[in-house]
Amino acid sequence: MHDLFSLHRTDGSARRGTLRLTHGVVETPTFMPVGTAATVKALTPDEVRSAHSQILLANTYHLWLRPGKELLVEAGGLHRFMAWDGPILTDSGGFQVFSLQERRKLDDDGVTFQSHIDGSTHRFTPETVIAFEEALGVDVAMVLDVCTKLPATREQLAEAVRMTTAWAQRARDAWSSERTAVFAIMQGGLDPELRERSAREIVALDFPGGLSVGETREEMYVTARGSAALLPENKPRYLMGVGTVRDIIMAVDCGIDMFDCVYPTRCGRNARAMTRSGEYNIRNAAYVRDFSPVDPACDCYVCTTYTRAYLNHLFRANEMLGPRLLSYHNVYVLNDLMRGAREAIERGEWAAYRDRVLAATAP
Ligand SMILES: [Zn+2]
């Protein structure tokens, strides 16, 4: 089988690579828009593609509950069901299930939980989650992990590391499809020693590492840099749930290759424009008569076609085109940011690119 990932060049800790997946090639660093319920909210697959997205993320927890595995298999898999023929990564569902608090019960073998939709009972184990992701035919499957709500005691964090490794081993044994690559998720919270243990155990299983990070920016940078350094050079590194321009730039600087977040589409639905010079709310009175583009530095369809005044009007009139156009622009901005990052790393000009973006978007 071909290599999943090739690293072409590094510049400082920033990395330029290529991920080869069943449904296509992904140039890294890359941003993945989130299609929670088999749709990137408000955008068609054609629009997701023309905004230069290479891969998207879908949520195991949500798809498991609705429409469910049986229907997705009957539809011919997730790609055919949602009419997206590019790569798809599914998250493990762990984050959502562990957020259910009173509605879930963890044991050594798995986690039983109640649907937030109809209260029905479901059970995730490392084996059932991998089988679900393979049945959907996704390109990258995340292994079910044990998430700990922070702040947590060291004992709780250590237990999450232990169980997550044991579950990753079981997922590895259950993994049967060469069409689906499998990534594990590092645990350990903000405890450097436990994160190191978790990284070592995941690396020993020969899995690429996914990681989540702390609550604050400062924690994120420290943890992302420390964690990236623990992972092998020749495997992709995925930081979950990061989606602002500044956070992504800092994470690329730490040596991370992949990101996902609902941020650009959520902002798009809430009138928040992401631009090369920071964010603003397009509903504001200041834009009622502003006939310039959403982002004058942007060459996307929205910015070359419409004005701020028009989008301001759409949002004020509650027209659904407003959220659609702004979601498109925001996703385009992040993909364009990543293209710029890839080119800068290739040229050995990463530090200058990073500093330019951070200066232009300074709050
Ligand atoms: Zn634009």
Could you describe the 3D structure shown?
The protein is of the alpha/beta class. 43% of the residues lie in helices and 19% in strands. It is built from 15 helices and 16 strands. Strand 1 and strand 2 form a beta hairpin. Helix 8 runs parallel beside helix 9 and helix 14 packs antiparallel against helix 15. It starts with a strand and ends with a helix. The chain binds zinc ion. Zinc ion (ZN) binds next to helix 12 and helix 14.
Provide the fold topology:
Layout: E1 5-11, E2 14-21, E3 24-28, E4 30-35, H1 45-50, E5 56-58, H2 60-65, H3 69-74, H4 78-82, E6 88-90, H5 94-98, E7 104-106, E8 111-114, E9 121-124, H6 126-136, E10 140-142, H7 154-174, E11 181-185, H8 192-204, E12 209-211, H9 217-230, E13 237-239, H10 245-253, E14 258-261, H11 263-269, E15 272-275, E16 278-281, H12 301-305, H13 308-316, H14 321-347, H15 350-360
Parallel strand pairs: 4-5, 4-14, 5-6, 6-10, 10-11, 11-12, 12-13, 13-14
Antiparallel strand pairs: 1-2, 2-3, 7-8, 8-9, 15-16
Helix pairs in contact: 6-7, 7-8, 8-9, 9-10, 10-15, 11-14, 13-14, 14-15
Bound molecules: zinc ion.
Q: Bin the helical content.
A: 40-55%
What is the mean pLDDT? 96
How would a textbook summarize the main sheet?
A: 8 strands, parallel, barrel
Q: What is the count of DSSP helices, taking H or I runs of 4+ residues?
A: 15
In what range is the share of β-strand residues? 15-25%
Side-by-side strand order of the widest sheet: 4-5-6-10-11-12-13-14
Ends apart, CA distance between termini: 46 Å
